[in-house]
Amino acid sequence: MERIEKIKAMLKESPGDNFLQHALALEYIKLGRDAEARQLFEEILNRDPGYTGSYYHLAKLLERNGFTDEARKIYEKGMQEALKAGDQHTYNELKSALEELSF
């Protein structure tokens, strides 16, 4: 919980910081607080669709919670954004996860 409090304190200073919100979402996942993590990932991606690191984690969260169709859409959107950004590594990671989900 101490890490969460530290991140929240930093977010008060920089409320729109994608990195901090992403970090907080990952901490929430560790605690099984998926709804809060999902909200943060969605806020990040609505504000900044080019923040490609959040697509994978949001889609995995959706998969775990039985939202397969939504997860598939998130992987696909993330792949598009990764291609736009020239981020082949993230594209391949998302593509692999999508293929795994499809089989």
What can you see in these coordinates?
The chain is an all-alpha fold. It has a single domain, classed as Tetratricopeptide repeat domain (Serine Threonine Protein Phosphatase 5, Tetratricopeptide repeat, Alpha Horseshoe). It has helices at about 1-15, 20-30, 35-45, 55-65, 70-85, 90-100. Helix 2 (about 20-30) packs antiparallel against helix 3 (about 35-45). The chain is globular.
As a percent range, the share of helical residues equals over 70%
Which oligomeric state applies? single chain
Q: Give the name of the CATH superfamily.
A: Tetratricopeptide repeat domain
CATH class: Mainly Alpha
Average predicted confidence as pLDDT: 96
Identify the overall geometry: globular
| Rg over C-alpha atoms, rounded to the nearest angstrom | 14 Å
How much of the residues is beta strand, in percent? Answer: under 5%
Number of helices: 6
* Count of discrete domains: 1
What sequence of helices (H) and strands (E) makes up the elements? Answer: HHHHHH
Give the CATH topology: Serine Threonine Protein Phosphatase 5, Tetratricopeptide repeat
